[in-house]
User: Fold ATP-binding cassette domain-containing protein from Jeotgalibaca ciconiae.
Amino acid sequence: MDKLISLEQVSWTRQGQEILKNINWEVNQGEHWAVLGLNGSGKTSILNIVTGYHFPTSGNVKVLDTTFGEASIPKMRERIGFMSSSLEKFGATFNKQPVKNIVLSGKFSSVGVYSNQEILPEDHERADEILRNLRIEYLREKTYRYLSQGEKRRVLIGRALMNQPDLLIMDEPCSGLDILSREEVLDIMDAITVNHCHLVYVTHYIEEITEAITHVLLVKDGSIVAQGEKEKILTDDRLSETYKIPVSVRWEEKRPWITINRKK
Assistant:
C-alpha cells in the first residue's frame, strides 16, 4: 500500500452549491500532512470524503486500499483514528466515564464503554500502553469531567489510537487550548508518527505545524491552492492567497510562524 489517500478530480455538491471543486490529493507512505484553510474553505468536507461520510458527486476516491463504491467503507473506518475538539459535544456522556473507559471505547467507536461490549485482556493492555505513551497514566481512574481541557484532548487522542490505526485524523485538536496545553498536545504528535501511524492534522494555525509534519495542503473556497513539502508550500504568497490577507512567514525551531502585514 503505497498510497494511503487518493482523491482524483473529486467534486462535491450540496443543495445545488459546489462545496469541493476538482480536488486532487495523494498521501503516500511516510508522509504526515497538515491541512490549512479558513473556516468554510472545505477542510472538513475533504475529511468527510476521506472517511466515507460523504460520497463525491464526481471523481474517484481510494483510502487505505479501499476503492469507494467497490468495498466496505465501515471496514475501512476501523483502520482510521479520528480525534476532534468537536467530540466534546458528547461531554454529558463522557463526563460520567473514567479515563480508561473512554480510551477503551475507541475499540467500538462508541461514546464510553457499555455492558454489552466485550473487552478482552489485550484491550486493557493496549489502553494501559496508550495511557503510558501519552503520559496520562496517572489519570486512569479519574472521571472525565474533572480533567483540564488539555488532559481531555490527550484522552481523546488516546481513544483515537485504541485500534492502532494506519491513519490518524486530528481535526483542530488544539482549538480553545491555552499555550501550555497546546504545546503538550503538539508534543504527542512526534510519538504518534514514530509508531508508524500516518497523520492528517487539520488546523487554522501554521504554528501548530511541528517537525513531525512533512507536507501541507492549502485549501481555499473548496479548491486546492497548493500542496507538497511544507518548506516549499508555506510561502508568503501562497499563505496570503489562502488566508485572503497579506502575511509573512518565518521559521523558528523548525516551526513556521505567521505575521499579518498591516497597511500603514
The mean pLDDT is 90. Residues 87-163 form one domain. The chain has two domains: 1-79+165-264, 87-163. The CA atoms of residues 218 and 261 lie 20 Å apart.
